[in-house]
Amino acid sequence: MIRTRLLVRGLVLAAAVAAVAASTAAGTPDITRTRVEQALAPTFANLYVQQAAILGIPGITVSGIDASAACDRGGPKVADVGPGTDWICMVSFNDDNHQLQIGKFEVQIRADSTYVAGGPSKIIGLATITDKKTQQDVPNPVFEFDGTLNPDQP
Amino acid sequence: MTTSTTGIPLAPEPTAAAPRRATRRPGIGTVLRWEVAKLVAQARSRYALLVCLLAPIVIVLVFNGQQQTPSDTIYGRQIHTSGYAAPLFILAFGSQWIFPMLAALVAGDIFASEDHHGTWKTILTRSVTRSQIFWGKALTATLFTVLSLVVLAASTIGSSLLIIGTQPLVGLGGQLIPSGSALGLVLASWGTALAPQIGFTALSLLLSVKTRNPAAGVAVPVALSLVMQLVGTLGGIDLTRKFLLTTPLDSWHGLLAEHPFYGPLTFGLAVSVGWTAVCLAFAYFSLRRSDITGG
Prior knowledge:
The structure holds 2 protein chains of 2 kinds.
Chain A: H1 2-26, H2 33-55, H3 62-65, E1 68-73, E2 84-94, E3 100-109, E4 114-118, H4 121-124, E5 128-130, E6 137-139, E7 144-148
Antiparallel strand pairs in A: 1-2, 2-3, 3-4, 4-7, 5-6
Chain B: H1 12-23, H2 28-41, H3 43-64, H4 85-110, H5 112-117, H6 120-124, H7 130-163, E1 169-170, E2 176-177, H8 179-191, H9 194-211, H10 214-232, H11 238-242, H12 263-289
């Protein structure tokens, strides 16, 4: 009786270990370069429009900004997949003066497909900016922002 | 009393109904009623609900009074700019260990306390079956989990909107979400925690039956959730990660994207249902076959 119970427990444990091993081997990464690029660029553009609205700069639209991102993780030797704090994205966009800008964003990606991105303050401003209407300091929406990748897209 | 159309009481009916009521065997409803009565009398469950009600108000007040933002948790950066961000921040923070603990608080204790107090014999000699006791207790624990989540959600969302305000929310795609639709999304996000919470309740019920120890029944599910949380932060195990019970607690992120996605949400729902079914089945058969001689 005790021996069969031990045997059953051993089998259950072995099956669980095998399932974890198999699913680890069979899994495809949730976090890929394409998904990072396709999440970051439109998110940045949306937030840049909000920054322009706070600063009171007219005529800034998502399509006018035309943001795009080129991302890489940890240099050429590391595969561009998976969570990590070593993702770098070069974001190119048209700024308030319709000049082409290229900013280097540091992106920390968590395993749950959410990320935190921060850009160079030379291009996107300081952590707080002054609201043109109220003349009060408010957080700069593009200075550092949360976002999520879409694991449903290819 | 039933009366006929002429107003004369129908004599035979009460006399016929009375003996039938006396012989009717008590069922799950009876167990449920008793378990709820025990729960209401228990200081721990009452205080837990009181904390669910009051703690969010204190947390929101404290964070609102501070200059710094808890920016290492998602939506922490925005808690000063929108009253819809704070409930999402608390949802993300709470799912780390507070939610599993709430689910385990009653469920981990509900079977093991009978072992602890030696009262199995007392309740099993009543005219209810072991199955009825199992389902009555399981239902009571689930009701507590649902109630605690509802109270926590209502208190968090209510206090955030009152204290911080109803400013538009910035979504996870950088899009500005107007106040009206933000409320719906925040409510839906909290709603997604329901399925994994019921999963944690079932896990705690299983451990309560198996360990026969109230402390282990409450602590082990919390410890397991922390282990799952830790495993979930690792890279390179994306498929394994999807089957963890803690992963569905993150599935609300998709609702707040500019183009919402529901893949993780539906998969998470299936995973929660799977965990619930497996844990309940093991707990049920374990209790049915367990040897209760002591007490």
